[in-house]
Write a structure and sequence with these properties.
Blueprint (H helix, E strand, L loop, with lengths): L7 H10 L4 E4 L2 E7 L2 E4 L21 E5 L8 E9 L11 H13 E5 L3 H19 L10 H13 L4 E7 L2 E11 L2 E9 L8 H13 L6 E5 L5 H9 L3 E11 L1 H10 L1 H11 L22 H9 L11
Parallel strand pairs: 3-4, 9-10
Antiparallel strand pairs: 1-2, 2-3, 4-11, 5-10, 5-11, 6-7, 7-8, 8-9
């Protein structure tokens, strides 16, 4: 499979086609994952702190972004990734994971799904099984078959989006949606049925993506931000993910931060995990990590705000 890299502008157009709110300020595309809260659409995009560089609505919620080298931040952003995709080899994995993957290679088959009608026919049942198992709170509307079809359509209108299916005994078991943006392969969406869990389908899919990435010019495979759920985050580290810690700037409306912590516990835990991932160690850190002695966690910043201590505002320096 050949990866066709999108530019960041193409990536923004794709996300907009998917119904995601994105906006370009200066040279940076921003995404609004929660109302009035913004981060760069491309997770590695560095931005110099300052109101003129942010979407206007961010003053009601907040922003979080990496900062360029030499610019002081007040926090960190942690990202899960695989580095050096071209150097991947199953022989470099621990014995247990080699055995799991070799077993998966015997019972699973992975192939790209290029037919929207086939996807709409087969994939909703997998998503239903995934939802019943996890009670995933996000995007519950995809359980409706018509809404599922509308959600899936943009993936098949863009030839640079890879929709990968995993089959067991000729029946679909899992879906992975991934693509390359600039020099980063982004694993965007993954869901699998319950029946395939004891067979370690996730390990098989992870291996498949890493094998396919070897033929690309990608520098990283990005696997998302920490979720704040220990079992989920730890499972990525167990499968060999590294943690990239980037100096960052985080500014959140204090009232909003208080409300999020009080009434949106899962979202608050994720924010804390992104800024202060508790399992970050030298052993699992990515070599590209840049240090920043001034960085602090969201929890520390929140404590300062409650005590009436305001952080430095780059607009007023």
């Amino acid at each position: 499979m050949a990866w066709e890299a999108m530019t960041i502008d193409e990536y923004a157009a794709f996300q907009r086609a998917c119904g995601t709110h994105v906006v370009k300020i200066q040279d940076t595309w921003w995404v609004e994952p929660r109302p009035f809260f913004f981060r760069p659409l491309f997770p590695f995009a560095e931005v110099t702190p300052g109101l003129r560089n942010y979407p206007g609505q961010a003053v009601l919620g907040g922003v979080m972004h990496p900062v360029p080298a030499g610019i002081s931040g007040n926090s960190y952003m942690h990202l899960f990734l695989y580095d050096e995709p071209g150097a991947y080899s199953i022989d470099k994995l621990c014995c247990k994971h080699r055995q799991i993957i070799k077993k998966g290679l015997e019972i699973f088959q992975a192939k790209r799904i290029a037919d929207l009608d086939l996807f709409i026919q087969q994939a909703p049942g997998i998503y239903q099984s995934f939802y019943n198992r996890t009670r995933y709170f996000y995007k519950k509307e995809r359980l409706n078959k018509d809404l599922f079809a509308a959600w899936a359509k943009p993936f098949f209108e863009n030839p640079k989006i890879v929709v990968m299916g995993v089959y067991h005994e000729e029946k679909l078991s899992a879906i992975e949606i991934a693509y390359q943006v600039e020099d980063v392969i982004i694993e965007d969406i993954y869901f699998s049925d319950t029946k395939s869990q004891p067979l370690q389908v996730t390990d098989f899919m992870t291996h498949t993506i890493r094998e396919e990435a070897k033929s690309s010019n990608a520098r990283f495979i990005f696997r998302g931000f920490p979720s704040g759920k220990q079992t989920l985050d730890q499972s990525k580290i167990t499968r060999g993910c590294k943690v990239l810690r980037l100096p960052a700037y985080c500014k959140i409306n204090p009232i909003v931060l208080h409300l999020v912590r009080a009434f949106m516990g899962e979202s608050y835990k994720k924010l804390v995990a992104i800024t202060a991932f508790s399992d970050f160690t030298e052993e699992n850190s990515c070599p590209a990590t840049r240090g920043n002695s001034t960085a602090r966690s969201l929890a520390e910043l929140s404590a300062d705000r409650e005590a009436g201590i305001s952080g430095s505002d780059p607009e007023k320096r």
